[in-house]
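Record 1 of the preview.
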Amino acid sequence: MKSKILFLGCNYNEIPYLENLQERGFFVVATDINPDAPGMKIANSAIVCGYNDFEGLDIAVAREGPEDFNMVFTASAQFAHLGASYISKQLGITYPSMDNLRACLDKKAFYPLFQENGISIPETLYIRNSIELKKALSNYSAETDFYLKSDYSKNPNHIYTGKSLDLIKEEIQWTPDRYFREYYILQKTYKGHGIRLNLFPNGYELYDFETAKPIRIEDFPQFQEYKILELLSKLSKNLGMKSWLLKFDIIIGKDGYVVLDIGMDPPSRMKRNWEANGKNFVDFYLDLYLGS
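->
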């Protein structure tokens, strides 16, 4: 019998991973909230269920036979990892905990987590409403530059930039939704060079955040001076994600650095670069998660 894998999310971007798993001999049980999602048509078995529908995932697994599953995988949105973690626990499959996953999704959680692990972040305040925002901004000059982003923001949703005086006048989304749960994060703009670090077991790749071109670590001595790779590798291990590929948004300044974000979904810059150079990124990515 083929090894069975539960595959969460079946849009166009996920198809290469689904097809690759089938080529490796897996029996792919696909789930998606959209019955017409393209991956649902090519999976070995398809069940209409969203990745955040835990009850639906339970039903899907029960229908297929829980004892037959060897793995749960997603290359979908970061939120899909919560469903993957939940159902993995039900199946007795190792997966990062839901608490650790939530810590990577919620900026109100991961900035303190960064600090606890010795990782530098920008000057940061946590804001719950417009009154708190105005009070916080009143402590700075009108010309001070800021980023304001919601706790679960995903660019471009609920991200605002500007000077202190301009942000006070900005119409901020204060109604809770998928991207704003409870807090906004107010950060003083940190000047420097924006870099995307893709960190994986026994390696890493760096990309210019604006141009998406690969860059050399030797051009940024701050990585060695502040032991950035070591700190972020330790964080990955503490999160139970040492075998994963994690994305970190970093700004390298003249006298230091800050880390702005952590991501768990497949890195688009790295994937495009590999494909442009004839390298099979999907193979590499799946090898990491399959432990090949």
